Each structure stands twice: as structure tokens, then as C-alpha cells.
Amino acid sequence: MKKRLFTAILTCSLVLTPAITPSVALADDYDQQIENKSSEIDQLQNQQASLQAEIDTLEGKVADINDKAQDLLDQQAKLSKQTEELQQQIEDLQVRIEQREDRIREQARDVQLNGTDTSIVSAILNADSLSNAIGRVQAMNTIVGANNDLVEQQKTDKQAVEDKQADLKAKQEKIQENQAELESQKGVLMASQADLDVKKADLAAQQATKESEKSAIQEQKKAAEAEAARVAEQERLAEEARKAAAEATEVVEETPVTTQNQSNTPTTTNTVPNTGGTASTGNATNGGTTTNTGGNTTTGGDSGSAVVDTTPSVTGGSVVDVAMQYIGVPYVWGGKSPSGFDCSGFVWYVYKQATGREIGGWTVPQESAGTVIPVSQAQAGDLYFWGSRRASSHVALALGGGQYIHAPQLGQSVTTSSVSYWAPDFAVRM
After folding, report:
1. 350 Cβ partners below 8 Å, 6+ apart?
2. Which string of b and e fits 104-118 if b means at least 16 CB within 10 Å?
3. In degrees, to the nearest 5, what angle opens at C-alpha 209 toward C-alphas 208 and 213?
4. Using a CB cutoff of 8 Å and minimum separation of 24, what contacts does 398-401 make?
5. pLDDT tens digits for 146-175?
């Protein structure tokens, strides 16, 4: 009996005692994992600090781009003012030329109809006296001189018109060149900002992941520590049980045996405490009701509902309707909202609002948003471009019939115009 009792106690001890050791080792392993994650998070934070220096440099470049863009816009404003002045001067010269042309035609018609002879010889021969002849000659010289001055002034004004038109054309080409440069700078700016956003988002995502992993390990550590505490408590109870059993054994050994056959043998009850067991109550399958509360309810059969496609209709009409709402919005370089638009920001915003479609934030990617077509084939909703392919300087939204809507330039607002007034170089079918 005594041997069996000690064997049971020894077996219990051998089973329970090692149980705590792996838990302790596991907790230590969690500490190491947490330390590793903290180290990785520190490295990411150091990378973010290094990135901040890159961000500062990039923001400096962005500021330089904006300064350059502002210089171009200022130059654009001056050129626009000069072109307006030249245009007015040309119009004034053309009026004067037309007036002189009328006077010259009237003189020619007077000679034909009235037979007026303005030659000096004829004036002398028809004079009544010498003084009359001299007067006629002087008058004829004055008329001839005036006519010659008229003709010379006509030639001068016509040449001035040609020179000013050439100057006007050069300034318009410079304006278009500046506009192309502005669009290019806008593309560089957007690419730089996008690159910066990607880097910042990537590091933030990595850090969030590491923080989440660290939290998960900390939770696992807590669970391991709780399990170790439970096992320790179990070991404590088992030790108390061993001591109680040992004391009971000593009492049995010291009690003398008086009779060999005892009719009323006392019943020995070996009480073992419940150390972590689980009580089972009731019959889980008898009369129970199973309720599924975690999944989605699926109803079979014809429910009478249909899937509705809510994707906006990509039609020229819808795009044009949206665009026309923003007539009068001022031109702002880089603007992409109703508070201010530039040319490419305007068509980008209109297409985004009307169709949900992303066509690119400046002219070059917008050229690739559709198929290049001749200007004459453009329909409502298509795009007009000025400049060469992959280096366009301006974009407008076709309204149909050769009309378009656009954000022209600094100092102006969103307005409509015609290809007959300012003809685009190519179009893109959207």
C-alpha cells in the first residue's frame, strides 16, 4: 500500500514538475521577439528621419519649380498684354490703310469721270496768265506731293502691319512655349509629390505592421505568462497534496494493528483536490437550439431584386454638362478645383466628376487617355491639344461644332471659344 502511494505521488511529481520549464523558456523567447521588433521599429524610425532630409530637399525642388512657374506666369502675363497692344495697333493701322485706299480710289474715279488732267503741262497751257500758270504749277506740285506722301505713308503702314504681325506671331509662339514648359514643370511636380507620398506611405505601413506584430507578440507573452502562473499554481497544489499524502502515510505506519479480522473496517477516503479540471453540466445536444450569428444570411430563390450598375455614363453630354457649370472660374496654375483651374486641371476635374475616370493631371498623360484623331473629327467630350505630341502646351474640352471650353491663361477665366479663333494642333477621341 505504502509503495503504491509513493509511486503515485512520484508519478504526479514527474508529470507536473517539468511543465513549467517550457513556458518559462517560451516567455524568454517572446522577450527576444519583442526586442527584435522594437529594433526593427527603431530602424524604420531612423529611415523616416533620413527620409525627412530627402523630403526637405524635394520640397526645396518643389519650391524652385513653383518659383519658375511663377516667373513663367509673369512673363506670360506681359506677353499677353503686349500681344493685345500689338493686335490693337495692327487693327488701327489697317483702318488707316483702308481709309487711304478709299481716298486713292476716289481720286482715280474723279480723273476718269471728270476728265481732270493733273499734268503740269496741261496746267500751264490752260493758264490765263503767267501768274495763273505759276499758281497752277505750285498747286499741282502740292497735290502730287500730297499724293506721293499718301502713297509712301500707305507703304510704311503696310510694312508696319507686317512687322507687327510677325512680332505678334513670335510672342504667341513664346506664350505657347512657356505654356508647354509650365505643363512640363507641373508633370515634374506631380511626379515628385507622388514619389514622396509613396515613400512616406510605405514607411508608415511598415512601421504599422511592425507595431502590430510587436503587440501580437506581447499578447502572446501575456498568455504564456498566464499559462506559466497556472502551471505554477498547479504545482503548488500538487506539492501540498504530496505533503498531505506523506503525512497520512506516516500516520498509517504508526497505528498498531490489533486484530487480523475486523468486521467494521473503516473506509479510507483519499481526497485529491481539483486542480484545474473543468466541470461538465447538462447535455449540450438535448433540446438545444443552434443559432448562426456570424455569417451572412443567404436567401435562396427569386428575391425580386436586381444588381444595379451605378457606374456613371461616359458620354460627351454628361462631360459637357459638368464642364459648363464652371464657366467663369478663374485661371490658377496647378488648380484642380472649382476655386481655380488651369487648362489640364480643368479637364481632369470635369472627367473625374462626370465619369469617375482618371485621365492624368497634366497634358502629356491626357494625350494618351484616348485615340488621336484629326481636329475636324472631334466630337463633344473629346479633347483638343495645342503643341506637339508628348510636349503639348494646352488642352480644351470639345463641345461639338468646332467649339470648345477651356481655362485659357493667367488673368482669364474658364470660357468657351472656337477652333476658328484659335485652332488646336490635334485632338483625342475619349
Report:
1. 319, 322, 323, 326, 397
2. eeeeeeeeeeeeeee
3. 115
4. 398/316, 398/427, 399/320, 400/316, 400/320
5. 566 667 777 887 787 788 878 878 877 887
What are φ and ψ of residue 33, in 5° steps? -65, -40
d(CA 63, CA 55): 12
Local structure of 405: helix, strand or coil: strand
> Between 343-355 and 316-324, two packed helices, what is the crossing angle to 10 degrees?
120
pLDDT at position 30 is 76
- Number of Cβ within a 10 Å radius of residue 169: 12
Q: Tell whether pTM > 0.85.
A: no
- Sheet strands side by side (includes 403-406): 371-373, 426-429, 383-388, 391-400, 403-406, 415-418
Active centre residues (catalytic): 343, 394, 406
Give the span between the Cα atoms of 30 and 24, in whole angstroms: 10
The answer to whether the CB of 405 falls within 8 A of the CB of 419 is no
- The residues, ordered by sequence, that sit 6+ positions from 101 with a Cβ below 8 Å of its Cβ are 154
- The full DSSP string for 61-95 is HHHHHHHHHHHHHHHHHHHHHHHHHHHHHHHHHHH
Neighbouring C-alpha atoms within 13 Å toward the C-beta of 268: 7
